[in-house]
Amino acid sequence: MTSIRRWLLGWLIAGLALAALAAGFGIFRSARSEANELFDYELRTVALSLPANTEGAATSSHGLTDFRGLAEDRLFIEIWNRKGNSVYRSLDGIELPRLQPGIQTIEHREYYWRVFGVQQGGRYIQVAQPISVRDDLALRLAWRTLWPLGLLIPAIIVIVMLVVRCGLAPLSGISRGLQTRSFNS
């Protein structure tokens, strides 16, 4: 009787664990993909919503930023005038090449960047974000999505154990009844 219970519990819990891992992986990939789409949308929105009066703006002196932290989105914005001269840069110490319009991923000095560029009238705007920052933020969003699944797994295991015990109760009764009978009955 005990071997049947162990066999059922082992296979049911292993099956549920594998299903939970597969679901968790799917949820994680989906959340990460959606977060990256959201970040791409953010790059476009920032580029398209910049005011037109940045033609004579001075370059910002925020300094070189450590991209390993998660304090903010850490966007880098650069604007070029009609002549191709840089008229605005949101962070000093970063010099990304001017790319073709659209969204793309590039490698530049130890970092991979997601870059969106757009021509607006007489200026060209380029907004960039390090992939490492995007990945860290996407990872945090995905984990926030997955933690309820982590709480649900122990509850499912307890429910499986109770169901197996109740389901095998009639067999346990028969087994006890057979043990009390004499060999000659």
Description:
The protein is an alpha+beta fold. Helices cover 53% and strands 18% of the residues. The chain is built from two helices and five strands, in the order H-E-E-E-E-E-H. The protein has a five-stranded antiparallel beta sheet. The longest helix is centred in the last third of the chain and has 50 residues, at 131-180. The radius of gyration is 30 Å and the shape is rod-shaped. The protein starts with a helix and ends in a 5-residue tail after the last helix.
Short structural description:
With 185 residues, this protein is of the alpha+beta class. The chain has helices at 2-49, 131-180, and strands at 76-80, 86-89, 102-108, 111-120, 123-130. It has a five-stranded antiparallel β-sheet.
Radius of gyration: 30 Å
Q: What is the number of beta strands?
A: 5
> End-to-end distance, in Å?
21 Å
Q: Proportion of β residues? A: 15-25%
SS summary, helix count? 2
Shape descriptor: rod-shaped
Mean model confidence by pLDDT: 81
Secondary structure topology:
Layout: H1 2-49, E1 76-80, E2 86-89, E3 102-108, E4 111-120, E5 123-130, H2 131-180
Antiparallel strand pairs: 1-2, 1-5, 3-4, 4-5
List keywords for this structure.
five-stranded antiparallel sheet, 2 helices, 5 strands, rod-shaped
